[in-house]
Structures are given as C-alpha cells and as structure tokens.
Design a protein that fits this description.
Blueprint lengths: L11 H4 L3 E5 L8 H10 L6 E5 L5 E2 L2 E2 L13 E4 L6 H11 L3 E4 L7 H13 L3 E3 L5 E4 L4 E4 L5 E8 L2 H13 L4 E6 L8 H9 L6 E6 L5 H13 L4 E5 L4 H4 L5 H5 L2 H12 L2 E2 L3 H14 L20 E5 L2 H13 L9 H10 L10 E2 L3 H4 L2 H11 L6 E6 L4 H4 L4 H18 L3 E5 L5 H8 L4 E2 L2 H12 L23 H9 L8 E4 L2 H11 L3 E5 L11 E5 L2 H15 L4 E5 L7 E10 L3 E8 L4 H4 L2 E5 L4 H10 L3 H5 L9 H17 L3 E12 L2 E4 L2 E7 L2 E5 L1
Helix pairs in contact: 5-11, 6-7, 7-10, 11-19, 12-19, 13-15, 15-17, 17-18, 21-22, 24-26
Length: 704
C-alpha cells in the first residue's frame, strides 16, 4: 500500500486529522472499542474514518479492516484500544506506514521506562503520542470525538489526567448551558503533556477559558511559561491538582519541608504565571462561567501603595428581600470582598429610582419595587454598575422566576434580562446573578447574553473571589548564573561562608570542639553570647541552644549540659544580637523535581510550623519580588509597623530573601537550604542560624 499520511504541524494530527483509524473497534456497546468507533464515525463528514479489528465485523454499515496495513492509505491519527500485549505492534505498524499521531487508550501495564522508550520511538519518526492510559481527545470545532462519554459543546478547553473528572465537569457545565471546546485526556504523559495541550488551546479561537487537572507535572517551569502566555493572550487558566503531599515534608530535614507542600508549590507557580489554583470540579465550573462572561470586563481597584497587595474587591448587592441581601453581604464578605457603604452618587441614583425610602444602604433592598415594576431591577442595577466606586454588582433573590408563577410576565422578564446585560456591557463592570429559579427562559436569556447565573449565593461569591485572585504574571525570572563554587563538605562554617558571600549578614562566631576553646572564643567575641551545638536540624528542641550567656561560668555550665544532652562534637560560639522592635523570619529553599528551586519566606523561629504563615515563589527572585513575598504574609503589618511600632528595614529583609534564593539556585548540589531565624529590625537583618541538605545520590548530607 502507499503511505499518504503527512507529518502534522504541531498537534494538527491530534485535533484535526484528515483521517482516523480506531484499532480495536468493536460491535459490543459495552466495550471501549465500540464507543470510540461510534465517536469517530460521528465525524466522517469531516474526515475519512477507518475501523480496524483482526476479527471480521462491521459497525453502522462500515466493515472492519484486519490491520492498518490493509487500509487503502495510512491514517493521520490512530486510536489504539487493543489489549496491552498488542500496543507496541500496532504503533510499530503505524510508524512504518507514516501515521502522524497515536492516541493510546490502553493501559499498557509496562514500566515507565518502557513507555518512555515507546514514546521516543514515536517522536523519533516525527509523530506524536497521547497517553498511554488516557481517555482520548475531543475537538468540537473539528467534529472530532475520540473518547468515551458525552461532551457538551461550549467555550472551555479541558486538559485532564482524570477521565471521570472530565465527565463530571462536563455535566456541571451542561447544567449551565456551557461545555467544552476541546478535551484532552493526558494519561501518563509520555509525550504530549499538559504544557503541550494547553499551548495548543491558546491559539484555539473557540476556547475562551482553559481548565486543567494535573497530577504529574513535567518540566514545571516550561508549564509556567505556557500559562503566562495563555494569560497574555486573554485565555484565563484554572488548575486543579492533588492536595498537600506528605512526601514533600520528607524533602528536607528542616521546617521548609513541612511548610512547602506540593500544592503550595503549584499555587506559587500559578500566581507567578497568571493562572489560578482551585480545589474542586464545582469551583472550577463556577469560576469558568464567571471568567467566560467577565474576564475582559473585570476591573480592579487601585493597588495599595503601602500594603503591597490587592485591596478587597468592592461589591454592590441588590436583593428583592432583606434576607437575601443580608446573607449575600455576609457571604461575599466572608470570601474577602468588601460590601461598603454606597457613595453619594450611588445614593442619588437610588433616590431617583427608589423614592420614598428613608435610607439607601448596601445591600440594596428593593422591598417590593421589583414586584410592582420588573423594570426596577434593571434601573437600579444599571445605576450601581455605572457607579465608579463599585467594582462588581450582584443581583440576588427571585428575579428569573416571575414567569414561572405568572406566564404572562415571561416577555417582560426576559426583556429586563436583556436590559441587565446591556447595562453590564455599557458599564464594563461585572454583573453576577443569583436566583432561586432554574432553567427558566429568563435564566437562559441571561446566560446567552454572557451574564453568569448561579443557583446558590456561595457559588457566586466563590467564583468572583477566585477570579479576582488571578493576577498579572511576575516579570520573567532572572536566570541563575553558572555556579561559582561547589560545596564539598557539610560543615556549618561552609554554609555561613557561602551565604555570607551572597551578602547575608551573620553574627560574629567561632567554631570549637571543647569548653576551653569555647572560653577563648568568648574572650574574642565578647559577652553576652550564644552557644549552639552543631549537627542538629532543630537545635532548640534538642537542647542545642543556650542564649544570653553573660560570663565564663555560664558558658562552662551551658557547655557541660549541652555536651551531655546532645553529644555534639562541635559547637558555635556566637555574639548575641539584640535589636528592639525585631521579628523573626524563616527563609527556606527546596529543590522540587519538577519546578526546580522553590523559595519560602514566613514568620520564623521555633513556632514557624505552628504559625504556618508563609509565601512561596519560584527562585531566583528579583528584589521587588522578594519584597512582595514579605508583604503577602498575614503578619506583614508587624513588619510595616503595627500600632505605632517602627517598621523593620524591609529592603534589608528582602535582600536577605533574595540572597538565600540566589544561593540555592546557583548551587544545584543543594536539595534544601534554610535560614531560621532571620532577625529583622528597623536597622537591618541578621541571620541567626542556617542549615541545608547537600545531595549525595539518594540521600542528603545536612549542613548545620
């Protein structure tokens, strides 16, 4: 036979092939091969479809071919749904024929190394592989359906490692008259991975929002760049992943391992790339509905110059009962938004449209005005949408259900729905509707006009809060320069020396092995001082720290006790650092296998894990980024001056964070590096302890 398959440009053969073959097609509706074949045949107006099974048979008047080689021309896209022992044989045959893409549904049962070898064979021939162990691919615009299940059509492009989760998301979208533009089931990601699939969605015009469920991250920084490109193209990305991982706590013998989980790492990547990390299929769908309606309309209040963080979103609420409005106010406030008193201009609008009221508060209670005149909903809402002190407007309660009780009101209620959508378009501000109605003509009219409608008020609040967390990507990370040195031992002196070369300040110190040498060191340094036992990751808990030693007798007593308690062979004699209005921070970096060095800053000291007040980012950092991390902490007001106390030297603190991140990024032999505590005060920042983990194959050597 002749080979007519052509090498696909990018992923063209995956999403829009000229021909498809389903290998393992079946006449049995209970089998995957049947569902895949039926789906493939649904697009035969757009492409040639072949069904392959070594046993004779047919489906919908199309006979089965015994093999790929028996086809009149090689298909561009081959769907492999055969038992595991035959997968390699089918792919090998397709490669010889020149097929451009293979979607492997089968779970091969092979090792990861064997699957990677198979993927290398495919890509070496200029072809691509999706899977194995995947659910397939769907593209509504090209009428491609190579998967199991029903996929409603809409504006969401979904990339997922879970097939059943995709089906759940699809059903939730369908209930809101939405669906998928594309669906890619990643499976084991041996070739086509999440970054590839998401990148293909950026230029896909029918896709208005991108959703992804990822368990295994490949080349995390490449994925971050793709997510930033999606943000720049106006395609908001929503991500789901598995939760906090106990494995991450074992990544380093330090506080950092306990404070930086897999989820916090992914959240940091999302924050820096302009994506958003969510927790459930329902939350994802609620947020997608909002973003597809209002992504381009969303306005943000000005950034607070002294706080360094986004201020709360200001929400105006219109309810047709006091209860609905009050509960909505509590719900949105609970999600971190502000329901502020209305300004003079907004109150003037309400006086014009709701005369006779003694006061006009936020939330606005129509109190029967809507029942007597449905147009009041549009007039009041439009006025609030056009008020410059309002960032978003929520309409909550009964609107949408009037025609259910009185069909004669159907036309007018739908007309008001269009007036609400017109007002939203004119004002360029988001409108969210919460209604007790379901599937009414008015609800459908609102959704067709791009106004998100929610059945529960907490869905509306969650969607707006989640969308507001999408921030602009940070500037491109500065690349880590080549390592200037290689750490070859695990001595604390080495760690101090290395960090000091990056500008980190430490107290004066000498390292000793016996009490007499410690006394001599104390004479050089001067009292009061601190004594620390080396070789312990958590010195304080192990009795390895003695502070404020004021004379030789105190030093000898502390040394004897510490030697008996810890059995350490070496000790640090350090100057005590005193600073009024000081606070303790922790800076930690761990090397993530997918994302590389990850820096964490938080409230430190012995209570670091108790407070768990941290901010995380990819390393290295710019100075501005390091400062921004400090200002994101819940306890940031302590650093900027709380209740009249002077602020700490925030630039010095940021320089310390930047230095530790840079050091770890430049030293690939370190799997973890930590400074805890970093004492920050109005005049500077001083590192009081540091340790790290030096990689030695499968284990680490701790730097104390």
């Amino acid at each position: 036979m002749s080979s007519s398959a052509t090498a696909a440009t990018g992923l063209d053969a995956l999403f829009s092939p000229a021909s498809v073959a389903v290998v393992g097609a079946s006449e049995n509706p209970a089998k995957w091969g049947y569902q895949l074949a039926i789906g493939a045949l649904s697009g035969r107006d757009r492409r040639t479809v072949h069904l392959v099974n070594r046993r004779p048979g047919s489906l919908r008047h199309q006979p089965f071919a015994p093999s790929l080689s028996a086809l009149p021309a090689a298909p561009e896209h081959v769907v492999v749904a055969v038992p595991p022992p035959y997968v390699d044989r089918v792919i090998g045959e397709g490669l010889e024929l020149g097929c451009g893409c293979f979607t492997v549904i089968t779970s091969t049962g092979s090792t990861a190394a064997e699957e990677r070898r198979l993927a290398r064979d495919v890509t070496a021939r200029g072809a691509r592989l999706l899977g194995p162990n995947c659910m397939g691919v769907v593209d509504a615009s090209s009428q491609l359906n190579l998967s199991w299940g029903d996929f409603p059509t809409g504006g969401v492009g979904l990339v997922s490692q879970s097939g059943n989760l995709a089906l759940e998301i699809g059903r939730l979208l369908a209930r809101a008259d939405q669906g998928f533009s594309r669906f890619v089931s990643l499976g084991n990601q041996r070739d086509i991975d999440a970054a590839d699939a998401i990148e293909a969605l950026i230029s896909h015009e029918p896709t208005r929002a991108i959703a992804a469920y990822i368990e295994d991250f490949h080349e995390g920084r490449r994925l971050a760049r793709v997510l930033a490109a999606a943000h720049a193209a106006g395609k908001p990305v929503m991500l789901l992943t598995v939760g906090d991982s106990a494995a991450s706590a074992r990544a380093a013998a330090s506080h950092t391992g306990a404070l930086v989980s897999t989820r916090t790492t992914v959240d940091a990547m999302c924050r820096e790339s302009g994506a958003i990390l969510l927790r459930s299929a329902g939350e994802l769908v609620d947020t997608a509905l909002y973003l597809m309606a209002h992504h381009r309309r969303t306005t943000r209040p000005p950034r607070s110059a002294d706080a360094g963080t986004e201020p709360a979103l200001r929400v105006a609420i219109v309810g047709d009962s006091g209860g609905h409005g009050a509960l909505a106010a509590d719900t949105f406030t609970g999600q971190g938004m502000d329901v502020p008193p209305l300004g003079a201009a907004a109150q003037e609008i309400l006086r014009a449209h709701l005369p006779g009221r003694e006061s006009h508060h936020n939330p606005v209670d129509l109190a029967g005005a809507g029942e007597s005149d449905l147009a009041a909903y549009a007039r009041v809402t439009a006025g609030l949408l056009n008020d410059t002190t309002t960032d978003a407007v929520v309409l909550t309660g009964y609107f949408g259900d009037y025609a259910t009780a009185n069909p004669a009101q159907r036309h007018q209620e739908c007309q008001v729905a269009h007036e609400l959508a017109d007002a939203c378009d004119t004002a360029g501000r988001p409108l969210i509707v919460h209604t007790m109605a379901r599937d009414t003509p008015t609800v459908s009219a609102l959704r067709r006009r791009g106004v998100p409608v929610y059945e529960r008020i907490e869905q509306a609040a969650g969607a707006l809060a989640a969308a507001h967390r999408i921030t602009s990507p940070t500037p491109p990370l500065p690349p880590a320069p080549p390592a200037r040195r290689t750490l070859s031992d695990a001595h604390y002196e080495t760690a101090r020396e290395m960090l000091s070369s990056y500008g980190l300040r430490f107290p004066a110190a000498e390292f000793v092995h016996d009490v007499d040498t410690a006394v001599t060191a104390a004479q050089h340094i001067g009292y009061p001082l601190a004594l620390k036992a080396m070789g312990l990751a958590h010195k304080t808990e192990a009795g390895g720290v003695a502070l404020d030693l004021r004379d030789e007798a105190a030093l000898r007593t502390a040394f004897a006790r510490m030697s008996a308690t810890t059995g350490s062979a070496s000790y640090a004699v350090e100057a005590m650092v005193r600073a009024p209005h000081s606070h303790e921070l922790i800076i930690g970096v761990r090397r993530d296998p997918s994302f590389g060095p990850i820096v964490m800053v938080g409230i430190g000291g012995v209570t670091a894990e108790l407070t768990a007040d941290t901010a995380v980012a990819l390393a290295p950092l710019t100075h501005a980024h390091a400062k921004g991390l400090l200002l994101r902490l819940r306890h940031a007001p302590l650093l900027t001056g709380w209740r009249g106390a002077p602020a700490v030297h925030l630039d010095a603190a940021a320089q310390a964070v930047q230095a530790v991140a840079q050091a770890a990024a430049e030293h690939g032999e370190l799997t973890a590096l930590e400074v805890n505590p970093l004492l920050v005060h109005p005049h500077g920042a001083t590192a009081l302890d540091a340790h790290g983990v030096l990689s030695t194959g499968d284990s680490g050597s701790v730097l104390h």
